[in-house]
C-alpha cells in the first residue's frame, strides 16, 4: 500500500468505497474539481471513471497503485452512487491485472474469476466465502474433473452424447459443416460446445460471417435468432441459430456468406454515423468497397437504418455494405472467433458525456482482449476537460480532431496511423 501523498498527479489508482466495490480512478489536483474551489491546490482527489465529478480523499488514508496490487482504501464520500456498468468494467480490469490471491474480494468476484480458471488451482485460504460460493466451488471442481475424465476415458463419446441438447441432433463424430467423418481432422471449437468441425471448414469459417435474413421494410440483416425473439437466452439461441445455418434444416432463409477482401467494423451503440464515416474514409484512402458493419444495439427508431445507409451512399456510388445488428455485446464474443474484425469504433451521441467514463471502459475492455485490432474512440463536443485528460493519459496518446459530414466534430483517439493524416490539431481546451 502507498500513502496518498506519495502518489503523483495523473497516476491511476484503485480505491474501495464503503458499501461498494473496487473502482478505478485517476489522482487529480483539487483545482480541477468545482466542488472544492475553496481548497488548496495541493489537495489531491480521485477522479472516478464513470462519473462526472471527483471525490476528495483524506490525506491520512492509504491507496494503491493501479499496477502494483489492489489493497483496500476508502474515500470520505460514503454515499455516492455508481453505475453498475462501471463496477463491471473495474472488476474486469482488476482480473486482467490480477494478483487475485492477495485481495480481499467479494463472493461474486471470486466466483467469476474461478469460472475462467481451473477450480482445482484456486487458493482460497484466508478468504471469507459464503456458503453459496463454497458450494459453487465444489460443483465447479466436480464439473471440471468430470470434463477431464470424459476427454481421457474410452467411453468419452458416449458420456459426451448425453450432454447434447435433444433439439440438436448432429452427429458428434462428424464435422458440423461438411459432415465428413475423418476423426483425425476434427477440432473442438468453443462456439459449438462439444460439436466438432474439421480444419478445412474452420479455415472457411474464419472468412465467413453469419447472417439471418429478416422480413422488414429496411432490408437489414440481423444475427438475432427466433429463439431470442421469443425471450429465450440470447447467447444459447444465437449459437443454435449458427448451427442451423450449417445444414439449413430449420431455417430455410439462413445461410453462410463467405466474403473476401472486405473490411469488418464493430461499432458500439450510438456510433452509427462514426462507423459510416469510417467506411467512407477507408474507401477513399484504401479503395475498399466491401464493408460488414456490426452495430451493437438495435436502433431505437426506424429512420436510424436509413440514416446509416444514407451516410454510406452520400455523394458517391453505392458502397457494398452489410449492416448487422447485434442485440448484446455477448454476440460479438460469439462472432469474434469466426470473423476478423479490423476496426472497433466507439462514439457517444451529442446528448452529453455524463457517463463517458463507463462507456470508455466498456470499450477498452473489449479492445484489450483483441490483440492487433485497430480502434477509434471519439468524444463529441461539448468536451469535458477532465475526461480528455483522463483518457489521453490512460491511452498514452493525444486526441486529434475528426470532422465529417454526418456529425459534429469529435476528439478522436486512435492507433490507426493512416487516420492520423486526416485528423486536425485540436485547439487547447
TrEMBL record:
<dbReference type="Pfam" id="PF00855">
    <property type="entry name" value="PWWP"/>
</dbReference>
<protein>
    <submittedName>
        <fullName>Uncharacterized protein LOC117639634</fullName>
    </submittedName>
</protein>
<dbReference type="InterPro" id="IPR000313">
    <property type="entry name" value="PWWP_dom"/>
</dbReference>
<feature type="domain" description="PWWP">
    <location>
        <begin position="9"/>
        <end position="60"/>
    </location>
</feature>
